[in-house]
TrEMBL record:
Organism of origin: Gordonia neofelifaecis NRRL B-59395
Domain VOC: 10-124, 140-253
Superkingdom of the source species: Bacteria
PANTHER family per the UniProt record, alphabetical: GLYOXALASE DOMAIN-CONTAINING PROTEIN 5 (PTHR21366:SF14), GLYOXALASE FAMILY PROTEIN (PTHR21366)
Protein name according to UniProt: Extradiol dioxygenase, type I
PROSITE patterns membership: VOC
UniProt entry keywords in alphabetical sequence: Dioxygenase, Oxidoreductase
Gene3D superfamilies: 2,3-Dihydroxybiphenyl 1,2-Dioxygenase, domain 1 (3.10.180.10)
Molecular function as annotated in GO: dioxygenase activity
Length: 311
C-alpha cells in the first residue's frame, strides 16, 4: 500500500464560486461575522477570529460551486514530496509545487480529485493576529460536506491518497473523515451529482452559537434547519442560505477523537440521531434542495484537458 501524499494538519480555507459575489461578501461580513481581508471586482477574502489569513474566498461565477479546498501541511518540503507522490499516482496537478503568488502567499500544490474538486496543500501561508473571541462570530471554517455520486470511491481517495481517517458513517449515506482530532473536516454525502453541500463555521461556545443565530434573526435571516445537535460528531448545528443560495452552518462542540480509543460507528439515519436535542425536526425539502446544489464538474469544466488524464 502506498503512503499518503502528506500529513494534513487542518482545514485552512474554502473557495466558493457564487452567482452573487458582492451580496454574499456583504452577508458574510455584515451578518455572518467574518471580516474582510481584501475585496476586489468579483472576489473577496474573508477571515475569522483565528490566525488563518482567510477562511473563505468568494469568486464570482456563472454557476454556484466549489472553487477549492485548502489544507495546511507543515513545510514546503512536504509540499514537494506530496507533488512527487501525486505524480507517482497519476493524480493530475494543476498548480505547483512552488510559491503560490496568491494573496495569502505560501508554498503549495493544487491537484484534482476524481470528481473534479480542486484540493490545495499549503505551507508557509501568511498568518494574521488572532482576534478576541468574546463576540458571537466564527473562529474559522471547521468542515465541508461534499455531495458525491460514489461515496465509496470518494472515501477511498481521501483516505488512501490524503491519509484522512473515517470517524463514523451515517448508514451508507454519509461518511465523516478527519485529518486531526476534530471528528470531521470533510464529510461525503451520497447524491445524484457532485456538488458542495455546505460549509461549516466554528463558533467558540454553545452560548456564542446561539447568540450568532440571534444576530441572524435580528437581520431577518432564519435557519433552513436548526438549531439542533447531531449524533455523528456531537456538534451543534444551524444551517442558513447565503444570498447566492449556498448553505452555511454555525456549529460548536465537535467531538474530539482520541486515536488510540476511537471506534468508528455506523449511525442509523433516524430523526433522534440526526438531532439528539429534538429541537430542529427533520430536514425539510427546502434545506435538502439547497444542500443538493447544482451539478458541479469543477476543474473538469475549467480544465477540459484533465478529462484525458488517468486518475
Amino acid at each position: 500500500m502506498k503512503e499518503p501524499i502528506a500529513k494534513l494538519r487542518r482545514l485552512r480555507s474554502v473557495e466558493l464560486r457564487t452567482t452573487a459575489c458582492a451580496d454574499s461578501a456583504d452577508f458574510y461580513t455584515d451578518v455572518w461575522g467574518l471580516r474582510a481581508v481584501e475585496r476586489g471586482d468579483g472576489e473577496a477574502w474573508l477571515r475569522g477570529t483565528g490566525d488563518e489569513h482567510h477562511v473563505l474566498q468568494l469568486t464570482a461565477a456563472e454557476q454556484n460551486g466549489l472553487g477549492r479546498i485548502t489544507f495546511a501541511v507543515a513545510t514546503p518540503a512536504e509540499v514537494d514530496e506530496a507533488a512527487r507522490r501525486l505524480d507517482a499516482r497519476n493524480v493530475p496537478i494543476i498548480a505547483g509545487p512552488g510559491p503560490t503568488g496568491e494573496i495569502s502567499a505560501g508554498y503549495g500544490v493544487s491537484f484534482v480529485d476524481p470528481e473534479g474538486r480542486i484540493i490545495q496543500l499549503l505551507a508557509d501561508a501568511l498568518a494574521v493576529p488572532m482576534l478576541r473571541r468574546e463576540e458571537a462570530v466564527p473562529v474559522g471554517v471547521t468542515h465541508v460536506v461534499l455531495n458525491t455520486v460514489d461515496i465509496d470511491a470518494s472515501v477511498e481517495f481521501y483516505t488512501d491518497v490524503l491519509g484522512m481517517r473515517v470517524s463514523d458513517w451515517s448508514e451508507h449515506q454519509m461518511a465523516f473523515l478527519r485529518c486531526n482530532s476534530d471528528h470531521h473536516s470533510i464529510a461525503f454525502n451520497q447524491a445524484e451529482w457532485a456538488s458542495v453541500n455546505h460549509v461549516a463555521y466554528e463558533m467558540p461556545t454553545i452560548d456564542q452559537f446561539m447568540r450568532g443565530i440571534g444576530r441572524l434573526r435580528h437581520h431577518r435571516v432564519l435557519p433552513l434547519w436548526g438549531p439542533g445537535r447531531h449524533g455523528p460528531g456531537d456538534n451543534t448545528f444551524s444551517y442558513f442560505a447565503d444570498p447566492g443560495g449556498l448553505v452555511c452552518e454555525y456549529t460548536s462542540g465537535v467531538a474530539q477523537v482520541d486515536e488510540d480509543r476511537w471506534l468508528c460507528r455506523v449511525w442509523r439515519r433516524v430523526p433522534e440521531l440526526s438531532d439528539t436535542w429534538g429541537t430542529a425536526g427533520p430536514p425539510s425539502v427546502d434545506v435538502r434542495t439547497h444542500m443538493a446544489g447544482v451539478p458541479d464538474r469543477g476543474a473538469f469544466d475549467r480544465h477540459p484537458d484533465l478529462l484525458g488524464v488517468t486518475r
